[in-house]
């Protein structure tokens, strides 16, 4: 396979991470805990499978009527004083948000989790323009302090031990070291408290957007989004256009499915719908509410009728949690905002097929992701299709030749038989070059013994018994 | 900006001009014939009686480390609130004006910050507890449903370290579909700017996926139900 | 019944005993076996690598040859998935689509055939060892195979079955994936073998030799005290 810089980096990181047995055990342990609580909550559903079917149907319809729903959403939000902005790409989105921030002469910005913010490199743009931005989600805050990308889009700091977090806080905040998770959490709580109260802009993401009522919905556990959207004078929400749900009542299904699949909780701590700035008679709340609707190549994915269902994603992270590749290479190896199976499906569409096709190939296609997906995206088959699309666009010449030769071999059984006989001879000499630079099978023999051609193959046995 | 709107909508319409076939998955689970079920029939079961629903709410609340207390009378409720105030050493509380909150908080004899009509957030930071009413209690999930109109604004139920909800028995509903129906019946089309389902105290699993309470929102959630 | 057998290329070359066991089991049950010697490969390696036209060149021959089969038994979950589930996808919109669907409806993986089609679980086998089952991903998630191998193993005398933690987790073979991303493939294989070792089993049993080939390769290199064996060989031991 031809190697792009992103692919080379991916392989390099993967080589390091897959040998790290401490990382392997740590992540496996963390995700085992998740599996237990997830299975407990799934079992409480009268029918998890029917719930998946229903959720899939609702999202399918929503995506296939996206324009109508977005128009309805915008109309309803504007009717209650919200402002709606449309951003065709990352740059436009950054410009819009910077524009609002400048207009408000903001001096402090607090953020709750915004994956689309990562996608458009929003923090970097704001910081470059001289604005102070603080991540309020504990996991995001931790990785922000470490100047590193989120490891998992639901659990950004799950790769870190409490010791590492303690050292981080000691270094960056001057706090005393502790290996007590509660004490560490309280440190962050104290620091961030001030930020909520001082911030004049709160930036949030959205898990869903309700067309019927012009509301966005945010699912969280900590309450940091609740505070981000309560105290600052201006609230900005950045979200992908695919987050649309048609009806408010749809949340009755999606909130518990997001909680269960994403975190093993029937409902997370706070599930909140925001439908405008402070309304007349309300005690508090932002004076302005802006929603930025982001395309950024989502319409390209929409235009691929085979892969359109990838836009059903509710970003629960369940596919990451069950993916054996993710568990072994970790979230950073993907080198892009969206990790795991869904990341591998959408990134080639968002960032270019030829540069990111290695994400489609670096899967064993086991299908655990498809099984886990609460909205029944056909993830592993989409990866297969991406492979086909990548090769159709740009075949690898020697691979093509090899498969053409293989077709000839496979279509002519006597040749295949001969091949096996030659293999039997060749394998006597193979030990001389096994796992050396001369070994054509080195990709295998680096870590494994080669299977041997049997003294009598099946077809030879069959022929002899006649 | 209107250009972007037209660009995006144009792209969507063009994309959707090619119809897509719904994917057919082969996994065993999908091979079961799927007769369409209502959302209620997919979600966790909730019994039809008040007793069953109350029991389910209590069970869920306990699992969530939320303190639920059933009170016989409003006087009982006030007494429970006073007992908590004393046990925790409250010096100042925040609340908003409703029948339930007014009588219960007045009886405490503590300085009270009223959020109605606006307030100073630094003053709320000084409060040991936020006492609010609610729209509903949801048996299925152990959640409390509040809005910016029913619970004194957006911050009252999330800024102070202890959130106490004062509820009435009639507010207990079965499940999430019922809760959303209630919201629509009560508020449409003039919805409050915030609607929130509060399910237990604030929590995080961000450090080694170990549960810690009180990450940013309240560390304690109490529901007094009369 | 006249059963047409599809023997995957790697079983033909490297693990003939699995195929031989299938033949002997089915003949003992009174069926006649047809083995189309022209067929060597189902085309999955090219398919998984994204070379669908090249795959069709091989697959079209398979379709052609098996047109008149009464029933097709495939000795592999992954080849089974290829022929049953992916051939219709591969030939969608081509003149061969109908033939692919028709063949699909006649396809069975070996353990599925015994249990679901023939209703047989006791083959008179005896295998006095402790074993654990690895659920190959294609067989499990594409073909829905889970109970069938276990029901068959339950019918084997003196055999002790212990379930491993993460029996359904991918072992990392994944076809060409094992060569394209060997570091990930190896880590996943090590995880699978570690799960198996925890059971104290002597054998890892699977209906997919390709998975076992990868696991055995690791076992041989690391000299791990466990063995792999195909389900059919266990069922053919007396």
Task: Describe the protein in words.
The complex is a heterotrimer of chains A (466), B (226) and C (238). Chain A is an alpha/beta fold and 466 residues long. Chain A has three domains: 5-11 and 315-393, no CATH class; 55-296, NagB/RpiA/CoA transferase-like (Rossmann fold, 3-Layer(aba) Sandwich), CATH 3.40.50.10420; 413-465, no CATH class. Chain A is built from 24 helices and ten strands. In chain A, the strands form two sheets. A six-stranded parallel beta sheet of chain A has the order 1-10-7-4-2-3, sandwiched between helices. In chain A, strands 8-5-6-9 form a four-stranded mixed beta sheet, with helices on both faces. The radius of gyration of chain A is 26 Å and the shape is globular. Chain B is 32% helix and 20% strand. Chain B is built from seven helices and twelve strands. Chain B has helices at residues 2-16, 39-42, 50-63, 74-88, 99-106, 121-125, 176-187; strands at residues 67-70, 93-95, 112-114, 129-132, 136-138, 143-147, 162-167, 172-173, 194-198, 203-204, 212-213, 220-225. In chain B, strands 1-12-7-4-2-3 form a six-stranded parallel beta sheet. In chain B, α4 crosses α5. The N and C termini of chain B lie far apart (52 Å). Chain C has a four-stranded parallel beta sheet. In chain C, α5 packs antiparallel against α6 (97-104), α7 packs across α9 (147-154) and α11 (182-198) crosses α12 (209-222). Chain C is globular, with a radius of gyration of 17 Å. Classes of the chains: A alpha/beta (466), B alpha/beta (226), C alpha/beta (238). The interface between B and C is small, with 4 and 6 residues. β9 of chain A pairs antiparallel with β9 of chain B, so a sheet runs across the interface.
CATH superfamily of chain B: NagB/RpiA/CoA transferase-like
**Most extensive interface, residues per chain?**
A-B, 111 and 92 residues
Structural class of chain C: alpha/beta
Sheet with most strands of chain C = 4 strands, parallel
Which key terms come to mind for this protein?
heterotrimer; A: alpha/beta; 3 domains; 6-stranded parallel beta sheet; 4-stranded mixed beta sheet; 24 helices; 10% strand; C: 238 residues; alpha/beta; 4-stranded parallel beta sheet; 13 helices; 51% helix; 12% strand
């Amino acid at each position: 396979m031809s190697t792009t810089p992103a692919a080379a980096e991916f392989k390099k990181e993967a080589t390091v991470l897959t040998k790290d047995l401490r990382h392997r055990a740590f992540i496996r342990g963390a995700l085992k805990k998740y599996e237990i609580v997830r299975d407990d909550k799934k079992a409480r559903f009268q029918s998890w499978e029917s719930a998946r079917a229903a959720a899939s149907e609702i999202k399918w319809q929503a995506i296939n009527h996206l324009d109508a729903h977005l128009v309805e959403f915008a109309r309803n939000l504007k009717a209650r004083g919200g402002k709606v902005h449309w951003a065709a790409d990352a740059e436009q989105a950054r410009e819009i948000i910077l524009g609002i921030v400048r207009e408000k002469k903001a001096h402090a910005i607090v953020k709750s989790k915004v994956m689309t913010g990562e996608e458009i490199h929003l923090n970097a743009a704001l910081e470059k323009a001289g604005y102070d931005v603080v991540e309020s989600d504990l996991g995001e805050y931790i990785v922000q302090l470490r100047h590193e990308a989120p490891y998992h889009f639901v659990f950004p700091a799950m790769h870190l031990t409490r010791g590492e977090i303690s050292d981080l806080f000691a270094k960056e905040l001057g706090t005393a070291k502790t290996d007590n998770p509660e004490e560490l959490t309280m440190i962050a709580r104290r620091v961030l408290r001030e930020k909520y109260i001082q911030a004049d802009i709160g930036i949030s993401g959205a898990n869903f957007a309700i067309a019927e009522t012009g509301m966005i919905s945010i699912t969280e556990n900590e309450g940091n989004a609740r505070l981000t959207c309560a105290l600052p004078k201006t609230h900005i929400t950045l979200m992908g256009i695919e987050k649309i749900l048609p009806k408010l009542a749809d949340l009755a299904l999606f909130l518990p499915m997001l909680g269960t699949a994403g975190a093993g909780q029937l409902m997370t701590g706070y599930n909140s719908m925001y439908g405008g700035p402070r309304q007349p008679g309300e005690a508090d709340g932002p004076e302005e509410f802006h929603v930025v609707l982001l395309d950024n190549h989502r319409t390209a994915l929409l235009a691929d009728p085979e892969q359109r269902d990838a836009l059903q994603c509710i970003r629960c992270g369940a596919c990451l949690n069950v993916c054996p590749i993710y568990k072994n290479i970790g979230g950073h190896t993907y080198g892009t905002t969206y990790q795991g199976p869904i990341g591998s499906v959408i990134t080639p569409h968002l960032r270019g097929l030829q540069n990111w096709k290695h994400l489609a190939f670096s899967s064993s296609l086991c299908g655990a992701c498809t099984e886990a997906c609460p909205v029944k995206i056909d993830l592993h088959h989409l990866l297969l299709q991406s492979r086909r699309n990548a090769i159709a666009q740009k075949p690898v010449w020697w691979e093509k030749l090899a498969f053409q030769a293989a077709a000839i071999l496979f279509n002519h059984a006597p040749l295949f038989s001969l091949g096996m006989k030659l293999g039997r001879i060749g394998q006597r000499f193979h030990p001389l070059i096994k796992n050396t630079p001369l070994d054509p099978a080195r990709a295998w023999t680096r870590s494994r013994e080669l299977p041997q051609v049997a003294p009598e193959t099946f077809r030879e046995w069959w022929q002899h018994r006649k | 900006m209107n250009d972007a709107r037209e660009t995006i909508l144009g792209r969507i319409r063009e994309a959707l001009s090619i119809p897509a076939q719904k994917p057919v998955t082969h996994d065993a689970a999908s091979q079961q014939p799927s007769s369409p079920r209502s959302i209620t029939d997919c979600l966790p079961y909730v019994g039809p009686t008040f007793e069953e629903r109350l029991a389910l709410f209590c069970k869920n609340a306990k699992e969530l480390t939320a303190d639920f207390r059933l009170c016989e009378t409003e006087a009982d409720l006030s007494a429970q609130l006073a007992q908590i105030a004393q046990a925790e050493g409250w010096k100042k509380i925040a609340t908003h004006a409703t029948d339930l909150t007014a009588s219960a908080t007045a009886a405490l004899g503590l300085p009270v910050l009223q959020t109605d009509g606006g307030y100073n957030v630094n003053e709320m930071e000084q409060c040991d507890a936020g006492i609010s009413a609610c729209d509903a209690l949801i048996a299925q999930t152990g959640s409390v449903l509040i809005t910016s109109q029913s619970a004194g604004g957006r911050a009252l139920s999330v800024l102070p370290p202890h959130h106490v909800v004062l509820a009435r028995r009639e507010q207990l509903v079965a499940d999430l579909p019922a809760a959303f129906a209630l919201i629509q019946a009560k508020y449409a089309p003039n919805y409050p700017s915030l609607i929130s389902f509060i399910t237990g105290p604030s929590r995080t699993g961000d450090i080694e996926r170990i549960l810690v309470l009180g990450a940013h929102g309240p560390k304690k959630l109490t529901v007094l139900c009369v | 019944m006249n059963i047409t057998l599809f023997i995957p290329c790697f079983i033909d070359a490297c693990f003939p005993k699995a195929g031989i066991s299938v033949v002997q089991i089915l003949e003992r049950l009174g069926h006649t076996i047809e083995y189309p010697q022209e067929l060597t490969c189902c085309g999955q390696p090219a398919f998984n690598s994204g070379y669908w036209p090249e795959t069709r060149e091989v697959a079209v021959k398979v379709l052609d040859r098996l047109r008149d089969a009464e029933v097709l038994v495939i000795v592999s979950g992954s080849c089974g998935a290829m022929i049953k589930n992916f051939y219709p996808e591969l030939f969608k919109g081509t003149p061969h689509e109908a033939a692919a669907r028709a063949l699909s409806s006649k396809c069975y993986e070996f353990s599925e055939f015994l249990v679901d089609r023939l209703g047989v679980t006791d083959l008179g086998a005896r295998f006095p060892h402790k074993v654990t089952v690895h659920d190959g991903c294609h067989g499990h998630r594409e073909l829905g195979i889970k109970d069938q191998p276990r029901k068959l193993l339950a019918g084997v005398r003196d055999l002790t079955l212990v379930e491993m933690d993460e029996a359904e987790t991918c072992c990392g073979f994944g076809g060409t994936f094992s060569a394209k991303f060997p570091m990930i493939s190896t880590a996943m294989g090590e995880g699978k073998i570690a799960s198996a070792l925890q059971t104290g089993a002597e054998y890892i049993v699977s209906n997919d030799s390709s998975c076992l080939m990868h696991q055995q390769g690791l076992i041989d290199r690391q000299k791990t005290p466990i063995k792999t064996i195909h389900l059919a060989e266990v069922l053919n031991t007396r």
